[in-house]
Amino acid sequence: MNNQAITKLRNTGFKTALVFIVMSIVGLLMYGLNLGIEFTGGVITRFETTEVVSQEKMQQLLQDQVQGQFKLESAKDNTQWSVHQEADQAKEHYKVWFDKLVKVADVGVQFLDSDAFGPQVGEQLINQGGLAMMAALVSILLYLAMRFEWRLAVGAITALFHDVLVVLGVFAFTGQEFNLTALAAILAVIGYSLNDSIIVGDRVRELMRLNKDSTLDSIINAAIASTMTRTLITSGTTLATIIAIWVLAGTPLRGFAMSLFTGILVGTLSSICIAATVPALLGLDVDHYKIKPEEEQEMLTP
Amino acid sequence: MKTAYKHPGRYSLWQYLVLAFTLIFMTLSALPNWYGEQPTVRLSSEQKDATALTPNALTKQLGEQGIEVTKVVTENYGVTIYLQQQDQQQHAQQVLKAAYNDDYSTALAMKSAAPAWLSDLGMNPVKLGLDLRGGVRFLLKVDTAVAVKEQLEQIQSHAKQLIRSNRLYGATAQVIAGNKVELSYKESQFDGMKAVKKTLRQSYPQLDFSSDGPTRFVIAYGEQAIAQFETEVMAQNLHTLRDRIEELGITEAVTQRKGKNHIRIELPGVQDPSEAKRIIGATAALDFHEVKATGGKVFLTKEGKEVSLKPLPLLSGKHIKDARAAFSDMGVPEVHLVLDETGGKIMTKHSQKNVGNPMVTVFTDYTQDAQGRSIKTAKIINMATITSVLGSRFSITNMQSAQAAQELALLLRAGSLTAPVTIEAESTIGPTLGHENINNGLAALALGLAVILIFMGLWYRRLGAIANIALGLNLICLLGLMSLIPGAVLTLPGIAGLVLTVGMAVDTNVLIFERIKEESNKGRSVLQAVDQGYSNAFATILDANITTLITAGILYGVGYGPVKGFAITLGLGILTSMFTGVFASRAMTNIAMLKSKKLLKGVCA
Asked: Is the Cβ pair B549, A191 closer than 8 Å?
């Protein structure tokens, strides 16, 4: 890829990223996140039936056993069921109505799992999750500030914010349940997103030292060009494994896989288009990495 | 010229040895996972005259109930029965409990199915999380505020008692806001109150005391004292809960303090949460008894010795206000007790007449069996001789060890405190889902791995083969490391982390290979290109992985349940992938290059 093509790619990508950010904010404001019961409180009980049962029939069957209001959802062609109760509606332990259901149902019923969360737990987990996210950001910020020129560090962090925001935006638009594992995946995205940005940043730094006479733009482009293959391969292999998780690992990891997939996809884009572009906008100059005389001496002697 | 070039990055013999040793060790450590685990029920007894058990009879007995037994191993003090199916474990326990409850206690466990020599080396399969093996998880909230309130009320009634006994009529004591007890009295009673204050100061050294004018005196729990008190309450509750879970016969339970006032309990293998719920909510008590030479009620000591005691306790444990482990002047461990006012009086009266006689401490607990009946279990935890007249403060002397003293103090405090516990979250994972999760996770791993192996092989040819071997070694090392680390648990998100690690681990090699390609394009010789590629890429690899390592660390710190498993595989995966991706693949590259220079086919033009 030549210089101009990369500049064009960067500019287009940067604008696209801005559009993504705006859309994600709009999505979050309009729809919000479909939080999992870990956060909202409530009871979910899941079970399987040996044969296909119609939704109406199952609803009727459960109506007679379950006290209070509930929401019934089916999966796997009406053989897997989940009963969702709000925290204040779950009047009996699930075991009570489930045992009755097993007796009255004319098909085999197999218990899968049940989760019950009190409303206070959610508040705590949200606080903890937020705290974790902040802790991750701060420690990474510190690390980057130590390791890089501040403009490069800000570039990486901007890319990071973009990634997290877009992942949340996708959750808002699709209505996919945002649960604890999805939150964990976002933290992993933070780590991975930086991984790419750092590799580009590392190259920018290295090339700045070696080519003092080139323009900043061409140095950034050269850095992107030389890391492009690596970025694409690594993102590609990682995405491939995430697709494997998404397709095969079942419902519990759906939100997790979606979170990681989006995060790594847009993370690749942002590390190329944001992480390297923002420092230039902030006025990064080739002189910032001018090699000091003693260092130059060191580099010249083999 | 090229052949004369001494390869600067060639490893010395010891480096190869370290590498080989690590890989062999990790393989050994990972090996038990191949065999998996088998569900077992263990019957154990400390009684010498316990009914003898024969493997054949047990197999037959369980077989009649439709429970398949794979083998029965006779050990000291009992037998371990290996079962075919995990979902029959609880049924088997019930059957055995019904048959041998008098002589044997039963416990459920998962045992490694690997050959004995691996277990003898201490190599066991990685621990599976609840989402993979089924079980129950509780998140309990301990209401420490109630415990603090009760403690304050205790102080209040103590103060009232003292006021009465000093005949300071009209003086009052009341609990006021801000964790304080306020004494108010007439100015004329100031001198008389001195004795009351003195006793209170001595009884509660950890509290803050302050006079507020001539008619008010305030006893306050400082922030530090409250924090310390809450920590003690949590420790006591955890201890009691652990004991109870052990009673249930669940040996691999996890009981952990989480945050300020939460307790997380994981009971693997349990399928009915209601039973566990009853046990966790039960109450315990502690009493002091006198020995009765003939015709008393028989209690058992820890060692199984029978002791006859007066059936009605001399003093109930409700009167224990505080208990601390300490050492006597002679250096023998003992437990210092503080009784409340009523308790102190009873003890003084009793001990005046009974110097030289023994006093026995009995621990009683109400537990509920499967049918919901309350069962009283009582055991003697201490027998000591009264050496002098005792007041509200006395000691249980001659403890076996400092640890025993500490434990007794803790038990005594636990008995004296009631911090109510509520279940805030409860998850049950059925055994079917556990199996399904394992299968799904492994399928995802297989698919992800296959895609990557094929891609790397096609894209980088021979170097790709090296990367693929490194990837295989990485998985082995990761599994080996996880089996080795005691706290590491594999969960479903953990398996996802494993799959993800596979995708990310090739990054290390991709970075190196792309560097080699670049160096080769600059016109360097093959050997130089390889050398430069490895050394230049390493700084970048380190930089890139540190950020993920940071997030993994944070995730582990705050993670809840299964998420913690993800943090573990994520973090350890990065470490092992750097080891195999840089160190091991470098060694393989070196060895391969000695044989043929065509290695870089597919990488260099």
From this structure: yes
DSSP class of residue B47 equals -
Interface contact A184-B563, CB threshold 8 A: yes
User: Taking CB atoms and an 8 Å cutoff, what residues of chain A touch B545?
Assistant: 195
Kindly report the nearest CA distance between residue A100 and chain B, in angstroms. 15
Note whether A193 and B545 are within 8 A (CB): no
| ipTM rounded to 2 decimals | 0.86
Per-chain mean pLDDT for chain B = 81
Chain A residues inside the 8 Å CB shell of B272: 95
Residue B215: the pLDDT is 85
Our CA-based measurement puts residue A38 at a distance from the nearest CA of chain B, in whole angstroms, of 9
> Which of A142-151, A278-287, B156-165, B464-473 is most confident?
B464-473
Percent of chain A with pLDDT over 90: 22
At B503-528, the pLDDT tens digits run 888 888 888 988 888 888 888 888 88
pLDDT surpassing 70 at residue B95: yes
Residue B130, both tokens = 């609840």
In whole angstroms, how far apart are CA A29 and each of A22, A122, A169, B286, B428? 11, 21, 9, 58, 35
156-215 in chain A: CB under 8 A from chain B:
180-181, 183-184, 187-188, 190-192, 194-196, 198-199, 202
Is residue A73 within 8 angstroms of chain B, CB to CB? no
Give the nearest partner residue to A121 out of B425, B504, B563, using CB atoms: B425
| Closest Cα in chain B to A240 | B448
Residue of A114, A181, A248 with shortest CB distance to B562: A181
Look at residue B360 and give its three-state secondary structure. Answer: strand
Among candidates B131, B499, B560 on the partner chain, residue whose Cβ is nearest the Cβ of A125: B560
Lowest mean pLDDT among A272-276, B9-13, B391-395: B9-13
Confidence band, pLDDT 50/70/90 cuts, at residue B368: very low
Q: Examine the pLDDT at A21 and tell me if it is beyond 90.
A: yes
Distances A20 to A12, A165, B197 between C-alpha atoms, Å: 12, 9, 70
C-alpha to C-alpha distance for A38 and A49, rounded to whole angstroms: 26
**Secondary structure (H, E, C), chain A:** CCHHHHHHHHHHHHHHHHHHHHHHHHHHHHHCCEECHHHHCEEEEEEEECCCCCHHHHHHHHHHHCCCCCEEEEECCCCEEEEEECCCCCCCCHHHHHHHHHHHCCCCEEEEEEEEECHHHHHHHHHHHHHHHHHHHHHHHHHHHHHCCHHHHHHHHHHHHHHHHHHHHHHHHHCCEECHHHHHHHHHHHHHHHHHHHHHHHHHHHHHHHCCCCCHHHHHHHHHHHHHHHHHHHHHHHHHHHHHHHHHCCHHHHHHHHHHHHHHHHHHHHHHHCCCHHHHHCCCCHHHHCCCHHHHHHHHCC
Does pTM surpass 0.90?
Answer: no
Contact B499 A136 (CB under 8 A): no
Nearest to A238 among B500, B554, B561 (CB): B500
| Portion 257-276 of A in contact with B at CB < 8 A | 257, 260
Angle at B398 between CA B392 and CA B404, to 5 degrees: 95
